[in-house]
# Entry
Amino acid sequence: MNLFVSLKYLVALDDHKHFGRAALACHVTQPALSNALRALEESYGTAIVKRGRSFAGFTEEGERVLASARRMLHEQELLQQELDSRSGSPCGNLLIGSVPTAMPIAARFVARLQALHPGIRPTLRSMSSVELEAGLENLALDLALGYTERMEQSRAQLRVLPQYTEHYFLLQQAPAEQISGLQIGTEMRWQEAAGLPLCLLSAEMHNRRIVDRAFAEAGATNVQAAIESNSTVTLVACVVAGQVSSVLPGALLGELQAYGPSTCGLQARPLVAPQVAVPIALMLHQGSRPSRTLETALALAEDPAWLAEAAQHSGLLQGAER
# Structure
């Protein structure tokens, strides 16, 4: 039995909560993954996985093995990066999570990082705020891009690197056909937006709480979404295909604006009364020793040129009317 391989299978099972999906992620067959986990149980002399017709979680002993597995794999990755990297040339994996509304900025970040340091292999995942915090706490993530206002709710000791500020717009179909890209319309009050049929992120997403809070502050309580989804792509698609509007941050709409003619027929209107500005930051676990790739990512995260780029592609859209 290869211990590190078996531990990777165990962590994959925790990440995917499904034997088949964990096997696919590890590029092995499901029987091979199951056999490796049984061998791990025999080696430790205890049951690790609760088995039924489907994955049912881990035993109490299994949770301890899982926590140790993550620490061991983390240390193994640190060692491998030290051995593979040369001065100024970091090599290795870097796992970054981002809330869906910040994915355009996260994508720019990993693309710039990889272009500057080709030896770094970033993986970027779209995750909820709860998943980000859990991932940082159990060392499943190296870095997370999310809402700093959730810091008070997190049990983990996190280091925070501010990146940009999120501003909100109503995305709707434009009143007339246009030949240019995304049209920037006049301001709209949150209370007025509350009366429209809306497609919003679902309740488990922290962004939805921000939106609901803004509606409540505007005097619009119990706003009911016509359509809900945990995907920002779905929100935009529903606005394009149907008769609904959506509330989205400038970073997402900035990406639409960049596609020019393909966004014909849509307009974004700045939402006011109240003015909502939400800080977004990169976060990492304060207590963990950073890898070579993470150290390099942190240097980029604090670089003035990168922060200027993030600000340029987030927040207020260019050409917004006042």
User: Anything to note?
Assistant: The mean pLDDT is 88.
